[in-house]
Design goal:
85 residues, mainly beta, OB fold (Dihydrolipoamide Acetyltransferase, E2P), five-stranded mixed barrel, 54% strand
Length: 85
Amino acid sequence: MLNNQTQSATRSFEGTVVSTAMNKTVIVRVDTMRMHEKYNKNYKVSKRYPVHDEKGEAKVGDKVTFVECRPISKTKKWRLEAVKK
């Protein structure tokens, strides 16, 4: 019997830290551009993600990279990977 293991695709995003008010959690805003179907005009869509920051190294305004992980709490399913100041 062959062992067919496929590599799981983990999602990762890049965004800006907008809040550090909680312990070990930062709120990161990810901006994406979309095109309107009818008018073919680009517009910006923002989404906020609660990200687990174990060491507390991210500050407001930092550019960060985060990846998907196991659920840490009810809303936190993302883990901080790198901080780009």
